[in-house]
Amino acid sequence: SSTLVIAEPSSSSSELSPATLAAITAASCFSHPISLLAFSPPSAVPSSVSTVLTVDSENNDNKGTSMLAETVSNAVVKANQEHGYSHVVCAGTKFGANYLGRVGALLGVSPVSDVVEVISEDTFLRPLYAGNALAKVISNDSPKLISIRPTSFEKSTPDNTSPTLTPLSQVPSNNLTSWLHESVSSSERPDLSSASVVISGGRGMKSGENFALLEKLADKLGGAVGASRAAVDAGFVPNEYQVGQTGKVVAPNLYIAVGISGAIQHLSGMKDSKTIVAINKDGEAPIFSVADYGLVADLFEAVPELTEKV
Amino acid sequence: MKILVPIKRVIDYAIKIRVDPSKGAHAVQTANVKMSMNPFCEIAVEEAIRIKDANKNKEDEIVAVSIGPKQCSETIRTALAMGADRGIHIETKPDVRGDYIDLQPWGIAKLLKGVVGREENVDLVLLGKQSIDSDCGQTGPLLAGFLNAPQATFASKVTKEDDGSFVVERETDGGTETIKLLPSDGPAVITCDLRLNTPRYPTMPNIMKAKKKPVETISLEDMVKELGLDLDDVLKPHNQVVEVYEPPPRKEGEFVGSVDELVAKLKEKGVIG
């Protein structure tokens, strides 16, 4: 038995992304040798990784952070043909979710999405209804094809600085789609999905301009800025800020919810955060039911004061 | 141009689900709960209508497909009232659960592949990026894989080109990217994300008109037979759900009286320096 982990694109092409390092931790639960499929050769990998498979440049439409689902799927199928894995693991990011189903169809196996706990070789825990229920699931297919929720697994340490690279040759080329261009957010702040501190604003922020208050606090704490769906729907901030069932699921060390009442779909996206602070002028707001520390106050006074005092 | 839009009936997104742990895999209670069209499926229906309107060809047709119990016919009527032309309801027995417990994306995608073949000349399949009950996000990419079709997930902008290709801006982890789905023998498969559009509310006259639009109802068993599929492969979950339960509640928090007290508590807990 052996496990294949598919690497995510990374902001630095030679470093493995945090989501990939979490996927390697999840793959280690199977206690089998781990191969890593990478589209750009990593300079260091965790010592649990025994082989690094790299994809030929001629079959590699890797431009910036982009790789098409068809290209990734063809490479995974080829790797599995050559090596026959018992488990195939990827990160449950947008990148992973893009090809997970396609790979399943090509391998003839039904994938398990967003695993939050590996219980055994074939049994996994995954959320339903945006995490309001958890399902224990037995996969009857082979290989077991799973995506893991990156925030549910520790990141492994890339301590092997001279991994052996094995090229994967003759991957069928993708003639179904072509890549045109990308638009990458150029924020100085950390990425919302992986930030250790997240400050989110809701409809109580009253306008997009007022999010500057949250940015100041975020910059002081080295955090990212997020928003509730209500704030996105009101047009205050773009959708990539959205935390929730229909946006990003985050689990930082510290989550500060400002002017957010706490609709179910928002709570689903942040309730696994380690420490939650809620600031809202309505003491009855549902957000307080998940908060470790609740402050009933006018956010326009409390947030600047907090920014000054942290 | 023919656009197929698979739609799913789910527990309404604003409802807090009830979980009864004594019911094993059937713990999530679905009786007497408000059900609606999955919000991402509404976006798919809306986008199909916009693409059809922009294409200005009277021959164009939008076919809404739903797989599930009797009540899915209401979900199909909603899609027809929004502007879809025709419906196909693949009806399951009342006790078959669509929220991952029985029917799973694998079986749904197998059926949809069959429907694509049965319909002939489908140019585009538009789906939601995920359903809000099982949250798998697999049906679109599975279908694309089964069809060996070009795919785009998490679409935030879709444009049909004159050569039959679709240019799609899609959301990525770091922003967006724009890709082209090249013309192929089969349809293109696109899954819709939140930013793509804002679905319309059906108007009263359109709700009345929708009652006259054709809907074909066929049992799942008959459809499986007609398509030459294996009933077990479609209906028996590849991923067997053995237990469903609520996550443990968070430890009860406390109210603080001032920003100073908040800062003190956070420092004490070591959350901030």
UniProtKB/TrEMBL annotation, chain B:
Keyword tRNA processing: yes or no? no
Q: State the compartments where it is located.
A: Mitochondrion matrix
SUPFAM superfamilies in the cross-refs: Adenine nucleotide alpha hydrolases-like
Q: What is its main location?
A: mitochondrion
Domain Electron transfer flavoprotein alpha/beta-subunit N-terminal intervals? 25-227
InterPro entries assigned: ETF_a/b_N (IPR014730), ETF_b (IPR012255), ETF_beta_N (IPR033948), Rossmann-like_a/b/a_fold (IPR014729)
Query: Keywords of this protein's UniProt record, alphabetized?
Result: Electron transport, Mitochondrion, Transport
CC annotations in GO:
mitochondrial matrix
Q: Which GO terms describe its biological process?
A: carboxylic acid catabolic process
Q: Name one Pfam family in it.
A: ETF
Source superkingdom: Eukaryota
Similarity comment? Belongs to the ETF beta-subunit/FixA family.
Q: How does it assemble?
A: Heterodimer of an alpha and a beta subunit.
Physiological role: The electron transfer flavoprotein serves as a specific electron acceptor for several dehydrogenases, including five acyl-CoA dehydrogenases, glutaryl-CoA and sarcosine dehydrogenase. It transfers the electrons to the main mitochondrial respiratory chain via ETF-ubiquinone oxidoreductase (ETF dehydrogenase).
Q: What is this protein called?
A: Electron transfer flavoprotein subunit beta
- This protein's species is Cyclotella atomus
